[in-house]
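Need tokens for this chain, all 267 residues.
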Amino acid sequence: MTFFLQINISEMTEFFKYQGTGNDFVMIDNRQGLINLTTEDIEKVCHRRFGVGADGLIMIENIEGYDFKMKYYNADGREGSMCGNGGRCAVQFASDLKIFKDKTSFLAVDGSHDSEINDGLVFLKMIDVESIKEEDEGYFLNTGSPHLIVFVENIGTIDVKTTGAAIRYSEKWMARGGVNVNFTEILDSGHIKVRTYERGVEDETYSCGTGVTAAAIVSNYIKNCSEKINIATLGGDLKVSFSKSNPSDYTNIHLIGPAKFVFKGYL
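Here are the structure tokens for all 267 residues:
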């Protein structure tokens, strides 16, 4: 079956749908630099009723000094901050396009990232974390995107969309550009559960890569969890590993999990 969606571009453009633990993305190979989509175009493509349906849209572009550049747009059509699962899907997409073999280095909005694919899993190196701040609602840090970690019990009973939106749109956080809200339950020292309200999507997502990375780090920082943590999300299981040099300094951070091709179509 071939999928077509009409938007305002002069020729048909091939797109690919990928997902990483349920966090799904429209992927476009724009290495020729010929594709220009408006905010309205991207929002239409990502719409789950009238478009392809996705948490975001990613373009792969050429850039000197790297294998590729990842340009990420939220489902609302605006260019977003770093997306961890999107990064893993971009790596798998680039591998499927034969841009690299085994290992790669690419540029994203938060800087350079190294990555490799082993046994069907994408290992994505994230930026270092140098600051964790305690807030009234939880713990704030930036893992390429701004995240608030809220520790809870009985995570399955949380109304993530309502509670997360109340925090994200509060006067305090709106003044700081908004925040992603991650409800986190500690199962044991090596296992946590995370549910995320994601800005730009403005809803709970099945998984958030920068969010689970933040949750794993704060679980170590506050709850003394392991430096290799298994994370259960609505969309599947991820792993985060890191090194800790000082109480709030984290390096060699890796987000680990699958990234899968779903289908392709044409805009």
